[in-house]
Specification:
It is built from seven helices and twelve strands. It is an alpha+beta fold. The strands form four sheets. A four-stranded antiparallel beta sheet has the order 1-8-9-5. A hairpin with a 2-residue loop joins strand 6 and strand 7. The chain is globular and about 55 Å long. The structure holds a DNA duplex.
Length: 293
DNA sequence: ACTGTACCCTGTAGGC
DNA sequence: TGCCTACAGGGTACAG
């Protein structure tokens, strides 16, 4: 579910509630998510202040006053919802009764101001880890992450260097978190459509014989940035599970050019192609066979 | 060193 | 209605 725009939207929703606040109490409703919770998980969070909430790729990183950082990945269906002290709150179709909780409410952070931050995750592909702050950048999960697409570090040059000599196709390249951090199945398809590139083309078209970036690489970097920024502006994309921290749906699914639009007309000006769906590396890929080359 | 497949888990949609 | 299959935003562990 959550790719970079969704994680960033959740971060922006949580930050005003969490940053500068102290965690009074932690409830865990089971022993594990994707991985077991860290040793003494609750004790290591309770009484600590949250100094900052940042994002790296699809990871959320909360820095604690104890010197440790809480790393969270939302997996496919992870969701944070904020409840500000009400005994009963309704957000869209999501109803939460304090103290009871819904199925799959796995973790509750109770802040000293009474706010409750509930982590819900039906499929449990998400996880939470605690890492000493100094070891954050060397942590195996974060260490190998590629360029942050909205920062300057993602350039056509970087993409060309990483794509050189690769057999993988463009879609797989964009999905590879070691190359670019934060793109998933939706935004890889959407970015390739914006760039006019066929997802099944070899990634090697991004570099010339000397390893210099091609025009295609420049177009692709611009398309990645644009689609991610547009999606963040719309509060992310809601297909089924994803919600913002206040329970609201995202809006970018209304602007998909290709994702989920199999059989429909291409919306690109002057192109009257039909959107196709294909399985690539086990994942559904959507594209226009006419304007994506 | 790379690549494709199976798998983790639950819910939902569609065909029969 | 119910049963069965396929599929879903994630990543990883393998086998080849």
């Amino acid at each position: 579910m959550p790719e970079l725009p969704e994680v960033e939207t959740v971060r922006r929703g949580l930050a005003p509630v969490l940053v500068g606040k102290r965690i009074a109490r932690v409830e865990t409703r089971r022993a594990d998510l994707r991985f077991p919770f860290p040793q003494r998980f609750r004790e290591r969070l309770e009484g600590k202040k949250i100094a900052s909430l940042t994002r790296r790729g699809k990871y959320l990183v909360a820095t604690l006053s104890s010197g440790e950082s809480l790393i969270v990945h939302l997996g496919m269906t992870g969701r944070f919802t904020v409840f500000r002290g009400e005994s009963k709150a309704t957000h869209g179709n999501y109803v939460y009764e304090t103290g009871l909780g819904l199925a799959h409410d796995h973790v509750v952070l109770v802040l000293e101001d009474g706010s409750r931050i509930v982590y819900n995750d039906p499929r449990r592909f998400g996880f939470m880890l605690l890492v000493p702050r100094g070891e954050l950048s060397e942590h195996p999960l974060l260490r190998s992450l590629g360029a942050e697409p909205l920062d300057k570090e993602l350039t056509a040059e970087v993409l060309a260097v990483k794509a050189r000599g690769k057999k993988a196709n463009l879609k797989s390249l964009l999905m590879d978190q070691r190359i670019v951090a934060g793109l998933g199945n939706i935004y890889a398809s959407e970015a390739l459509h914006r760039a006019g590139l066929d997802p099944s083309r070899s990634a090697s078209v991004l570099a010339d014989a000397k390893g210099r970036p091609t025009v295609r690489a420049q177009k692709l970097v611009a398309a990645i940035r644009a689609v991610l920024n547009d999606a963040i502006g719309a509060g992310g994309s809601t297909l089924r599970d994803y919600r913002q921290a206040d329970g609201a749906s995202g809006g970018f699914q209304k602007s998909f050019a290709v994702y989920g639009r199999e059989g429909e007309r291409c919306i690109k000006k002057g192109c009257h192609g039909t959107i196709r769906r294909r399985i690539d590396a086990g994942r559904a890929t959507f594209f226009c066979s006419r304007c994506q080359r």
